[in-house]
Specification:
This protein is mainly β. Helices cover 0% and strands 55% of the residues. It contains no helices and eleven strands. A hairpin with a 5-residue loop joins strand 5 and strand 6. The protein starts with a strand and ends with a strand.
Length: 119
């Protein structure tokens, strides 16, 4: 059974920092592309950052220079270091795992963790 469990969300003042974690089980973690998505009220879910099995990263323009994604394959865990947080970063943050086979995309989601940034 695949499980992605996020932790580390909470309430923080603007300018503050949070570190999110995503612990994975039931998947071959090291071969998955891992990503953080977020969804604010009334908005569509959007990609925040992703990291491939080889360690390549990409970020949404809105978080470049402030957020850092990383992974520890030995611990089956992915992280998102969020600095200089802004009120517009307020959202539910979701962990995503994805890998491609010949016939389909295998994709899994965590339950989400709330991040609230007060002004």
């Amino acid at each position: 059974q695949v499980q992605l469990v996020e932790s580390g969300g909470g309430l923080v003042q603007a300018g503050g920092s949070l570190r999110l974690s995503c612990a994975a089980s039931g998947i071959a973690f090291s071969i998955n592309t891992m990503g953080w998505y977020r969804q604010a009220p009334g908005k569509q879910r959007e990609l925040v950052a992703a990291i491939t099995s080889g360690g390549s990263t990409n970020y949404a323009d809105s978080v470049k220079g402030r957020f850092t994604i990383s992974r520890d394959n030995a611990k089956n865990t992915m992280y998102l270091q969020m600095n200089s947080l802004k009120p517009e970063d307020t959202a539910v943050y979701y962990c995503n795992a994805k890998r491609w086979s010949v016939y389909k995309v295998h994709e899994y989601w965590g339950q989400g963790t709330q991040v609230t940034v007060s002004s």
